[in-house]
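Worked example 3 (structure in, sequence out).
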């Protein structure tokens, strides 16, 4: 799949600048359109509970609401100006949209009409408009399209020279590969890695991913096949260690829903990767 329509979430956090710059450069590399998606600036429902308090005059509530709206509009205006400046410098077509209702669900719905959405790694303590787990999980598990998350520590380069594919033969991993095909084609080097417990490593062990390497070869992508032995590590830690050791700049992997009763619950390995990621992740469900 070609990347021609990319979205980037702009949430008012200190990581906005790096995220927008990354997305703009990615759009430039793939001749794509970039849209900045801003979360709601005004939560008018939060004022509803105060309306029932008789000691607070309606005029005071109205004045507070107007002031809140003005501050939110000013904040969104600043974010839009920064986004437009990055798009102009990158020389790519761009657009700006503000999500006005049901933040996580509306962002996910918007992401369904795009090729890729760039998000930030969920911060342990999100503040203000900053996207938390609810937004990332909803977009990841219900948009139907791949999501690229950037770590909140450091600013990774958008030139993704070495791409690592975590492969276990699952449907989710296959969707991630399909969703990231344009990035795989553009990469200088691609490595397919499977996570293997030390107890399963034998001299004649054939790494998983050989068939995937053949498939990618038919798309013009030469891929190496390797494995990450867990030893005493959790799967997520083994993957991140392998990525660091080989100098990967992007990790492509499937994301798993843990509960059918609540779709917005990411499985253990996926959540651990998002919680501790040290490089960009391209995930698909």
């Amino acid at each position: 799949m070609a990347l021609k329509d990319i979205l980037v979430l702009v949430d008012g956090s200190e990581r906005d600048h790096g995220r927008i710059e990354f997305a703009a450069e990615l759009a430039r590399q793939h001749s794509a359109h970039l849209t900045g998606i801003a979360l709601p600036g005004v939560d008018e429902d939060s004022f509803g509970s105060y309306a029932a308090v008789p000691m607070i005059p309606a005029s005071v509530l109205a004045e507070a609401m107007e002031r809140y709206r003005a501050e939110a509009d000013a904040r969104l205006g600043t974010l839009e100006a920064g986004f437009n400046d990055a798009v102009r410098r990158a020389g790519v077509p761009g657009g700006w949209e503000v999500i006005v209702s049901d933040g996580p669900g509306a962002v996910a719905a918007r992401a369904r009409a795009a090729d890729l959405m760039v998000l930030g790694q969920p911060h342990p303590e999100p503040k203000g408009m900053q996207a938390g787990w609810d937004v990332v999980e909803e977009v990841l598990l219900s948009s139907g399209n791949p999501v690229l998350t950037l770590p909140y520590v450091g600013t990774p380069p958008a030139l993704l020279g070495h791409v690592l594919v975590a492969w276990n033969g699952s449907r989710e991993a296959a969707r991630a590969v399909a969703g990231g095909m344009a990035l795989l084609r553009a990469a200088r080097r691609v490595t397919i890695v499977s996570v293997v417990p030390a107890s399963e490593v034998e001299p004649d062990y054939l790494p998983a991913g050989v068939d995937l390497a053949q498939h990618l070869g038919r798309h013009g992508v030469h891929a190496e096949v390797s494995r990450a032995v867990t030893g005493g590590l959790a799967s997520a830690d083994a993957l991140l260690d392998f990525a660091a050791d080989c100098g990967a700049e992007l990790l492509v992997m499937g994301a798993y829903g843990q509960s059918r009763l609540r779709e917005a619950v990411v499985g253990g390995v996926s959540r651990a990767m998002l919680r501790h990621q040290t490089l960009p992740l391209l995930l698909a469900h």
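Notes: The beta strands are 5-10, 33-38, 94-98, 116-120, 147-150, 162-166, 189-196, 223-229, 250-254, 281-284. The first strand starts at residue 5 and ends at 10.
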